[in-house]
Recover the amino acids of this structure.
């Protein structure tokens, strides 16, 4: 998915159950829109920040020595800090057009491996070195996680900016510094007293 906007068709036929069920649920919400009950869909990409379930799960895999990159995982992706996701939801509540979907991101594209390395460092976890080929990953990792680690995913947020007035509130550097403080890591790659 490269430079995708909200006009891209939903994929209820996706081989990834997570993606398929999200598409079905989203269509149900959009179809439920009426003049007396306005519905909108907010689509943040890869929500991260304090207490992120996804980042937390990846950190635990890395701590257990069970995390691996897929063909280096140097792919361009969009991510969304939780504060920006909340801002997108609030703006959609107040300004969204019924029956519409809106992509929300940090608007700062990231190299996935670099981004996750920064996350691991912010949690004080050694950065995993294991790297799988696509073929190895196909036998070990289910979709959509295999896709997540090996395919570019960039989204266009022009619609949210134009219709909602969306502007990201949090920027990566300040949010990473906050994560390091929360986890007792003084600077990237250094833990207190190390």
């Amino acid at each position: 998915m490269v430079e995708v906007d909200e006009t891209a068709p939903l994929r209820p036929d996706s081989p990834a159950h997570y993606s398929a069920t999200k598409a079905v649920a989203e269509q149900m919400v959009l179809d439920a829109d009426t003049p007396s009950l306005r519905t909108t869909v907010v689509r943040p990409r890869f929500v991260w920040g304090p207490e992120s379930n996804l980042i937390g799960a990846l950190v635990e895999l890395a701590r257990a020595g069970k995390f691996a990159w897929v063909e280096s995982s140097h792919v361009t992706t969009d991510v969304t800090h939780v504060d920006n996701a909340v801002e997108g939801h609030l703006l959609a509540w107040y300004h969204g057009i019924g029956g519409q979907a809106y992509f929300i991101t940090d608007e700062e594209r990231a190299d996935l491996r670099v981004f996750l390395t920064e996350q691991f460092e912010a949690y004080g976890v050694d950065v995993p070195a294991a790297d799988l080929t696509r073929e190895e990953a196909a036998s070990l990792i289910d979709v959509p996680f295999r896709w997540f680690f090996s395919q570019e995913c960039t989204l266009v947020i022009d619609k949210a900016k134009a219709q909602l007035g969306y502007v990201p509130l949090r920027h990566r550097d300040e949010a990473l510094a906050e994560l390091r403080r929360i986890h007792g890591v003084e600077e990237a790659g250094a833990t207190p007293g190390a």
Notes: The CA atoms of residues 49 and 82 lie 6 Å apart.
